[in-house]
Amino acid sequence: MNMSNPGTGSDLAKVDAHVIQPEEFEEIPELSDEWFARAVEHEGGKRVAEDFSTRLRLDDAVLAAFRATGQGWQARANAALRDWLIAKSPTSQIPPQ
After folding, report:
1. How many CB atoms lie within 10 A of CB 66?
2. CA-to-CA distance for 95 and 81, rounded, in angstroms?
3. How far apart (Å, rounded) are the C-alpha atoms in residues 82 and 97?
4. H or E element at residue 41
5. Whole-prediction pTM value?
6. What would the DSSP string read from start to end of 14-30?
C-alpha cells in the first residue's frame, strides 16, 4: 500500500528505504560557503530570516480591488500602506520609495 503523505505527496516510506548508490553521490551538490550563504534557515517548519513575509488580513472588497489591478498587486498594496503611514505619521521611520 502506498502511504503517501498528503502534505508532500510523497511515499515517505519508499524514500526512507532508499539506499543512496555511489553514482548518486555525483548528483548531491557540494555544501560550500556560498551554498550556506544562500540558505534560508527554518525552525519548527517556519522560516527564520530578517526578510520574512507575513500574513495580513484584508476584507474581501479591499483584496478584490487590489487583485483586480493585475499582476504586481501585492507591491501596489505595500506602496499604498507605505504612503498612508507616511501621510498619517510624518515622524515615522519609514522612508518613501
Report:
1. 16
2. 12
3. 9
4. strand 41-43
5. 0.45
6. HHHH----GGGGGGSPP
